[in-house]
Design brief:
There is one protein chain. The protein has one domain: Arginase, Chain A (3-Layer(aba) Sandwich). The longest helix is centred in the N-terminal third of the chain and has 20 residues. The relative contact order is 0.18. The protein has an eight-stranded parallel beta sheet, with helices on both faces. α1 packs across α11. With about 325 residues, the chain is α/β, with parallel strands linked by helices. Helix content is about 40%, strand content about 15%.
Length: about 325
């Protein structure tokens, strides 16, 4: 690959709280305040957003604004696909986590014959579908869409035809069928789930490395085990949600903060060790929400520290 390309997706319509659309700007401000020229070093693309749709009356209450989230993910998919076809490394900076479906779809569209492995660093499993979601927020659904599982055994919602139509379209975004097999999705730090997600993770053999396990067994051992689990995958994608970090230690500047998470050094070590495998083709940062930050711009500053750190490892692999 030639270099890194930054894909900026300032969309927050898949979230339950406004403000993640400002997360990228907050990260850029963190860089400026450190005197770091990071955002002048790389080519970038601003993905057109649908954020104004937040004011529309919600018609699909079990998958809010799904028609606009689908269109947003389609734009991200197209951008990621082209970036990879241009032999550049897509480093996606996004608002809410629904963006990740577009990213995974773009990777698979660029390499349809390759097997994708996903490392999901998050406090949440994001395994709901419109049939199981208690909130209807689509940022809790990207993994379910990517693996193509509705989890109808745990259905609690009667979903209407318009929602079903767009949900089906999301599952087939980029190219027809699942983007990743369930057992090729590995979680780090998931600790805030609902029963339908727990049952899916167990039934589909989706491994979750909890914070306590990583600290007890050792980070290096856990990451190496993940690389072994995903040894049959040709390429890896890392999705980093800042709520995987401990909100009490870092900041509550994210839409769904959860305590007892990782610290920034652990996140950097996990990502760097994965990148060193040479199989990572894309990384995504999501869910910085400066409107919720009670410590100034602390969450964005922490996210930038991690971004700047892991970029060096990515450049070594290009």
């Amino acid at each position: 690959m030639k270099s890194i390309k930054l894909i900026k997706n300032r969309s927050d319509i898949g979230a339950g709280t406004r403000g993640a659309d400002m997360g990228i700007d907050a990260i850029e401000i963190a860089a400026i305040n450190k005197g770091n020229d990071y955002f002048n070093r790389f080519d970038f693309e601003d993905v057109k957003t649908h954020n104004e749709s937040i004011y529309n009356m919600v018609r699909n209450s079990f998958a809010k604004r799904i028609e606009d989230v689908y269109e947003q993910c389609a734009r991200v998919c197209k951008s990621v696909k082209k970036t990879l076809e241009d032999h550049e490394f897509p480093l996606v900076l996004a608002g809410d986590h629904s963006s990740a479906l577009g990213t995974m779809s773009g990777i698979k569209a660029a390499f349809p014959d390759k097997t994708l492995g996903v490392i999901w660093i998050d406090a949440h499993a994001d395994l709901h579908s419109p049939y199981t979601s208690p909130s209807g927020n689509v940022h809790g659904m990207p993994v379910a869409a990517a693996i193509g599982h509705d989890n109808l055994d745990c259905q609690i919602n009667e979903v209407g035809r318009p929602t079903e139509k767009f949900w089906k379209a999301m599952k087939h975004l980029g190219n027809k069928g699942p983007k990743v097999l369930p057992h090729h999705v590995v979680y780090f730090g998931v600790r805030d789930t609902e029963e339908p997600e727990d049952r899916q993770m167990h039934r589909l053999n989706m491994r979750n490395y909890k914070v306590a396990e990583v600290r007890y067994r050792g980070l290096e051992a856990c990451v190496d085990e993940v690389l072994d689990i995903l040894r049959g995958c040709d390429m890896l994608y890392i999705s980093f949600d800042v709520d995987s970090m401990d909100c009490d230690m870092i900041s509550r500047g994210t839409g769904t903060p959860v305590p007892k998470g990782f610290d920034p050094n652990e996140i950097m070590a996990i990502i760097n060790r994965l990148v060193a495998s040479g199989k990572v083709v894309c990384i995504e940062f999501v869910e910085v929400n400066p409107l919720l930050d009670l410590k100034g711009n602390k969450m964005a500053e922490t996210a930038f520290e991690i971004l700047d750190n892991i970029t060096e490892g990515v450049l070594k692999q290009l």
